[in-house]
Write a structure and sequence with these properties.
The complex is a heterotrimer of chains A (351), B (344) and C (317).
Chain A (H helix, E strand, L loop, with lengths): L2 E14 L2 E14 L3 E5 L6 H8 L7 E10 L2 E2 L5 H7 L4 E4 L13 H12 L4 H14 L5 H4 L9 H13 L5 E5 L7 H18 L2 E6 L2 H7 L2 E6 L2 E7 H6 L4 H8 L49 E4 L2 E3 L15 H14 L8
Parallel strand pairs in A: 3-8, 3-9, 6-7, 7-8
Antiparallel strand pairs in A: 1-2, 1-4, 4-5, 9-10, 10-12, 11-12
Helix pairs in contact in A: 3-4, 3-6, 4-6, 6-7
Chain B lengths: L1 H9 L14 H4 L8 H11 L1 H19 L33 E4 L2 E4 H4 L19 H37 L1 H16 L2 H11 L4 H11 L2 H15 L2 H8 L4 H37 L11 H10 L6 H28 L6
Antiparallel strand pairs in B: 1-2
Helix pairs in contact in B: 3-14, 4-6, 4-14, 6-7, 6-10, 6-12, 6-13, 6-14, 8-9, 10-12, 11-12, 12-13, 12-14, 13-14
Chain C lengths: L8 E12 L7 E12 L3 E5 L6 H8 L7 E6 L2 E2 L6 H10 E4 L13 H5 L1 H5 L6 H14 L16 H13 L5 E5 L7 H18 L2 E6 L2 H7 L2 E6 L2 E7 H7 L3 H9 L5 H6 L16 E6 L2 E5 L4 H13 L1
The chains are: A alpha/beta (351), B mainly alpha (344), C alpha/beta (317).
Family (chain B): Belongs to the binding-protein-dependent transport system permease family. OppBC subfamily.
Organism (chain B): Vagococcus humatus
Main location (chain B): membrane
Chain lengths: 351, 344, 317
């Protein structure tokens, strides 16, 4: 598969009165043509900061300290604002969480959808509006012809998010970054929007970076998943690998802390403690203070990536050759067994 | 991955033993220093140079103006026909304009010598047409302006905050009636109120203050009401209500502290307009009566002889401008300091 | 639920109506003729999408609003018309609430100890300052925080910690019944489980009864003994959580259930979403009707056999 975006060893920090917050501490990942990569993590894990940096939309007190963002062979880190404006919206588009604040309340939706097209490609207003109409039909706005002249407040929350998606897609971008696009929506609307995004991806072959904290949504949309914690990616793999064969104790914790159908009462696993304060990140592995499977070495040295399969890496010392064998939580054992059935790979750790 | 091999060898086998966790404190620890609201605001205000300088200038002006009640260079109301219209004279300064000389018919003349002023007597800013020391009168005028500022602030705090708070917290019909009353009051121009006052009272401080009592607090009341309506719906206010807290306690404990920033900022913005209102009344002759002086009356007197004795108008004009600019800059700085959205 | 003895109905809501601007053009029927009851010691989950009236129901029960009509019996006493400061004060101690937004539910200008002690101060539950401090420290410990946190301000805490402070505040007045108004929807996944576990632990320790309002059906199913599904101000289905989750009968429940994503790619690949179409207005009188023991559906009399048959079919599968 063709690599379309390559993020390499990104370090980002924010200056605050209390000191330097190291929001991103060495993040690397690739994005391939036509795939959906989900970035999962809690608030403060750095998932939004990473994608905002790709768009170069960092707040004023944020700095890229180190790293490369290669898009079509060019490093976005060194682009000027003017150069970025040509890329934003045209080649890399973004959908935000709140559909109400990402639409201009004083402009009708036909013009809003057409605006980006007119800015990036030299087309007449009529042509742009025609494309806008086509796209609004594609995202499933009923009676799109009549509603071109309507304003955002005349649409429901779900429809607004559809319009936002239409705006993002009007230039057929190579990459679509969706930052929690369904978090503000009800479950039934969320399901519709996700179906729509998958459908459109099929049609126009765009690559999607999907940021969310909802593992259910991830299981639905993602081809590959990257789990972030404390400003780093701690595990990355295909959707099946992350959900059925997770290796990092944090991923274990996340998956066990969601109730499943089979779960009996009083069985929910909770990761103790709170996320790390990146003003003063722990030495070693950021997760060790909350990690019941922590090793002594976790307090000294951050673990490197260990390869589980060619597509699956996890940054935990538990995968090191000298590490003791541990039995993961019950829910994870269940998932490993499923993986065993699916792939036929024997899970030695379970015996 | 290549680097994996390298890294692992560096560590001894016992470093791969399970870690025994100490206590939960380390998991729940809070790193950032604890800052109260005021400390936090002060930290941000300090960053704003203009606001800090303004604050110090205002403190200095206030100390000097009120100090002059006891230590004044001269008696501000004592007339002395022998010493009329003297130019400024500052000891040790030989700059034209500040050395007691004036240009008469193209010639520099020592006016002090002409008026037989004793050697040790200086009028730093000269004297007016009745021989009163301008500096002393300026200090007196500044004092009046600052008193007006304090009164405006007190009115804002007492009537404005109370009215707005009751209106906002009660809501419904009470709010409706109170707002209509405000609309009627704010419909009457200040000047009309002032002229009406003059039909009953002598022109002077009393009538200015009464005019301010009628209308000076309206903006504050509106802002407090809007803020109270907003805070009223916050979940912590609901929590207090479900705990059985009374409305008045909620207003004092929950609403007021959370809008204190807005109140202070609005107060700081209303002060310069009150000072200007008084100065304006003084200037058009509806303000203080001589021998009392305010910056407005000084301006009024000064502008009549501006062509010949410009210092009589420059001094009060600069003072008034500095005070107003300082209040505005400080208010601006405070607004940024109290606004949590500016947090960085 | 204890099946041996007849469980005590701690809360019994009958025909609750909460209209805003009643009789005016912009009348909103946020809660329209809702009836349900909660047994002592159980957790009743109320689910529905935003705007369905679930939070309004909670707020009407705790009397943040004046109910337009209907009765709310708490421990046998009708609290919907409760008046007088003295009656209200006892009621305010018995029923407490935990709020959705951990950032908006704590007064940013108050120290944690004063936030938690607010109820203690109002009801005069502390004999002395030392007693007050002791109670605050005990509450902090109960919710898994440290007593050194007492002198800090809310903004210094993480979302999960703040939510625990909110829980401590509610517990300070020793309530019997707590309304949890979407207490976990603003929290991260790993923190949600902490709060849910804490709520369950407290329920056991203090014999609390919960009304758990949420839109996340899988979490509601996990924590609740019984579930009510709300749609446009009406309760459309009530039953034990197993029953509703596995054999949801009302078309709206079915659509809601089919929309929940689960962290399981294989399940997700096969999940088929059902869209809910509101039935045409046919003039039939509808209300909650018992289809099977303890399983209620909002329907008309002649629809009862249909749902009974549907339930049988589902159970056979």
């Amino acid at each position: 598969m063709k690599k379309i975006l390559e993020v390499d060893d990104l370090h980002i920090s924010f200056d605050t009165f209390a000191g330097k917050v190291q929001a991103i501490r060495g993040v690397s990942f690739d994005l391939y043509k036509g795939e959906t990569l989900a970035i999962v993590g809690e608030s403060g894990s750095g998932k939004s900061v990473t994608t905002r940096t790709i768009m170069r939309l960092l707040a004023n007190n944020g700095h890229i300290d180190q790293g490369k963002i290669l898009f079509k062979g060019e490093d976005l880190v060194h682009k000027t604002e003017r150069e970025m404006q040509k890329i934003r919206g045209k080649e890399i588009a973004m959908i935000f969480q709140d559909p109400m604040t990402s639409l201009d309340p004083t402009m009708n939706i036909g013009n809003q959808v057409a605006e980006s097209l007119r800015k990036h490609k030299k087309v007449s207003k009529k042509e742009a509006l025609a494309s806008a109409l086509e796209l609004l039909k594609l995202v499933g706005i009923p009676n799109a012809e009549q509603r071109l002249k309507n304003y955002p407040h005349q649409f429901s929350g779900g429809q607004r998010q559809r319009i936002v998606i239409a705006i993002a897609l009007i230039c057929y971008p190579e990459i679509l970054i969706a930052d929690e696009p369904t978090t503000a929506l009800d479950v039934t609307i969320q399901a519709q929007i996700i179906e729509l995004m998958k459908e459109i991806q099929q049609k126009i072959q765009t690559s999607i970076i999907f940021i969310t904290h909802d593992l259910g949504v991830v299981a639905n949309v993602a081809d590959r998943v990257a789990v972030m914690y404390g400003g780093r990616i701690i595990e990355v793999g295909t959707s099946d690998e992350i959900f059925y064969h997770p290796q990092h104790p944090y991923t274990w914790g996340l998956l066990s802390s969601m109730p499943t159908l089979e779960m009996e009462e009083n069985e929910l696993y909770a990761i103790p403690g709170s996320p790390p304060d990146l003003l003063d990140p722990p030495k070693g592995d950021a997760f060790y203070p909350r990690n019941e499977y922590a090793l002594k070495i976790d307090t000294l040295e951050a673990p490197p990536f260990f390869e589980v399969s060619p597509t699956h890496q996890a940054a935990t010392w538990l995968l090191a050759p000298h590490a003791p064998k541990v039995t993961p939580p019950k829910e994870i054992v269940r998932r490993w067994r499923l993986y065993e059935q699916k792939t036929g790979l024997k899970q030695t750790a379970l015996n | 991955m290549e680097q994996t091999q390298l890294n692992v060898k560096q560590f001894s086998a016992d470093s791969f033993e399970p870690l025994i966790h100490a206590e939960r404190e380390s998991r729940e620890k809070i790193v950032a220093p604890s800052l109260t609201f005021l400390q936090d605001s002060w930290r941000r205000l300090k960053k704003n140079k203009g606001a800090v300088i303004s604050l110090f200038i205002l403190i200095a002006v206030a100390v000097i103006a009120f100090g002059s009640i006891w230590v004044s260079p001269h008696d501000p109301t004592k007339q002395n026909v022998k010493y009329i219209n003297l130019p400024p004279k500052i000891p040790g300064v030989s700059l034209d304009g500040f050395n007691g000389t004036a240009l008469i018919g193209g010639q520099r003349v020592d006016k002090y010598a002409q008026a037989n002023v004793p050697e040790q007597v200086h009028f730093y800013l000269g004297t007016d047409g009745l021989g009163r020391d301008l500096l002393s009168r300026l200090l007196m005028g500044t004092r009046v302006s600052l008193i007006i500022a304090i009164i405006a602030a007190l009115l804002d705090l007492s009537i404005g905050v109370t009215y707005g708070m009751i209106s906002g917290m009660k809501g419904g019909k009470v709010d409706n009636v109170m707002q209509r009353v405000l609309e009627v009051l704010s419909g009457i121009p200040n000047l009309v109120v002032m002229i009406l006052m003059l039909t009953i009272f002598e022109p002077g401080m009393t009538s200015i203050i009464l005019a301010m009592i009628v209308t000076g607090w309206i903006t504050m009341a509106r802002i407090v009401r809007a803020q109270a309506l907003k805070i009223k719906d916050q979940e912590y206010v609901m929590a207090a209500r479900t705990l059985g807290e009374s409305s008045s306690k909620i207003a004092l404990k929950h609403v007021l502290p959370n809008i204190s920033g807005v109140i202070i900022v609005q107060m700081m913005f209303s002060i310069p307009s009150a000072i200007f209102f008084e100065a304006f009344l003084g200037f058009i002759g509806l303000g203080l009566r001589p021998p009392a002086a305010s910056l407005g009356t000084l301006l009024n007197e000064g502008y009549k002889t501006f062509r010949f004795l410009p210092h009589l108008m420059w001094a009060p004009a600069i003072t008034l401008s500095v005070i107003m600019v300082c209040f505005n800059l400080l208010a601006d700085g405070l607004r940024d300091a109290f606004d949590p959205k500016m947090k960085d | 639920m204890n099946q041996v003895a007849m469980p005590n109905k701690l809360l019994d809501v009958q025909n609750l109506k909460q209209y805003f601007h009643p009789g005016q053009e912009n009348e909103v029927r946020a809660v329209d003729n809702v009836s349900f009851h909660i047994y002592e010691g159980e957790t009743f989950g109320l689910v529905g999408e935003s705007g369905c009236g679930k939070s309004t129901t909670g707020r009407s029960i705790i009397r943040l609003y004046h109910p337009t009509d209907g009765e709310i019996y708490f421990n046998g006493e009708d609290i919907s018309k409760l008046k007088g400061k003295k009656n209200m004060q006892q009621f305010r101690r018995d029923i407490q609430m935990i709020y959705q937004d951990p950032y908006a539910s704590l007064n940013p200008r108050m120290k944690v100890q004063d936030i938690i002690a607010e109820g203690i101060d109002i009801h005069g539950l502390a004999e002395s300052d030392a007693d007050r401090n002791q109670q605050v420290n005990d509450l902090l410990e109960l919710v898994g925080l440290d007593k050194s946190h007492a002198t800090r301000y809310p903004h210094e805490f993480s979302g999960g910690q703040r939510q625990r402070i909110g829980i401590a505040r509610a517990l300070a007045v020793q309530p019997r019944f707590i309304i949890c108004d979407e207490p976990i929807s603003a929290l991260d996944v790993s923190i949600q489980a902490q709060v849910v576990n804490l709520l369950q632990e407290l329920q056991r320790k203090k014999n609390l009864t919960y009304l758990f309002i949420a839109h996340d059906l899988s979490m509601v199913k996990y924590i609740s003994d019984r579930i009510g599904v709300m749609h446009f101000g009406k309760l459309v289905e009530v039953g034990t959580s197993e029953e509703v989750y596995r054999f949801g009968l009302h078309p709206y429940t079915e659509s809601l259930l089919s929309a929940i994503p689960l962290p399981d790619p294989d399940y997700e690949r096969n999940r088929r979403r059902v869209t809910y179409q509101a039935p045409k207005e046919d003039g039939k009188e509808r209300s909650l009707k018992e289809i099977a023991s303890g399983h209620y559906i909002y329907c008309s009399d002649d629809e009862v056999p249909f749902y009974q048959k549907k339930l049988e079919q589902k159970k056979r599968q």
